[in-house]
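fwd from M.: "can u put these together and see what the complex looks like"

so here's what she sent:
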Amino acid sequence: MSLFEILSSIYEGFGVTASVTILGLLYAIPFALLAGVLQHFSTGTARWSITAVIEFWRSSPAIVLLYAFYYSLPAFDVYLSATTVGSMVLGLNAGAYSSQAVRAALQAINRGQCEAGLALGLSRFTVLRLIEIPQAISAMIPTFINDVIQLIKGTSLVSLITLTDMTYRAKEIAQLSYDPAGIYSGLLLAYLIICYPVTVFGRYLERSQQEKRAR
Amino acid sequence: MGFDINFAIEIVPLVLKGIGNTILVAILSFFGAVALGFFWEMLRRSHRLMRPFAQFIIDAIRSTPALVQIYFLYFVLPYYGIVLPAMFVGIFGLSFYFSGYLSEVFKAGIDAVPAGQSEAAYSLGIGWRDTVAFVIAPQMLRNIAAPTGAYSISILKTTPLLAVIAVPEMLGSAFDVASKTYRYAEPMLVAGALFLALSLLAVGVISRIERRLGLGPSLKLKSA
């Protein structure tokens, strides 16, 4: 098989990889924002419990979470498709990482910003919505891009729970044609083509933000 | 088939069998990743023409999934007649994957030492070697301690990937139990709980070490 043939049959799994990534982001982004904001503002028991939820999703290995949910939900009479389980687990795992970026960005905002908003008569929630969150989001974007790359790479794990993503395709054709060197090089290349531009873009954003801060 | 709590408790010791290998693999991979990551960073700084080359290697390592890198090593090396034990392939794979991230940590740590420090050392007549060893390195080590600690946790959390190439670590022992008893729910949940406990324990140990070294309690976990 030529490299082109290998790549084109690997990219037959691109749809699954892309949909798990996008569905994962649909879990990750709201979870990250909600958990980060709640962790920043809550105190006492509420803070303790939100931290416990974040730590559960962040401190467990993604592959172990994936297997644990995939195999044990049916035992509790919860039947979800592999796509749902995969995107939910990977999304919440990535979201828990991003929530720390949200919290750090909120903590880094100058207190004067909030005080000025309150002095103008805005409610605390309006200050959060119109003043703090927009600034936090622009500060956390480089970290968020990194988390997105982690999520895209993490989707290779769904091949282990029977989803036919790019990694699964590669394993399939590796069994048919005895050319592991070509096929797994092709698989590395397939992910590199997707993630490399994002990595470079993320570093560019990070650097431009550092320069902005240095000024 | 419901969830049997007694069975779950019964199999805890069986799953725990793999914990020694999990910890061993994590520690060896950590040292491998630090060494290789430092090598990439030195390559990047060694020569103007080396820079883009080393940068591309580092970015390529960071742009491909750990699972795929491990598959690559595990399936491709034997094709060229290099047959290594799965454990060795796994340790090398994890070292390779995390070396890309650690080289970025080292880069940031070295860059954060102000240029005035080495200029001052040179103007005092201190040689190049002594400047690196006694002026730059101590400050760089302080800069990299926290993120390196965070990546050591990430490495620990990535070790269960090696179950896919049959390294006998903790997730592997959970699968052994599952395939013998035809029950998957309990072993997987037990493995999940044990890995969570292990990684929280590791976070505790690392932040203790950092506090002992006077580096402050801030352990910021990075993704990966």
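replying to her w this: Chain B is about 75% helix and 0% strand.
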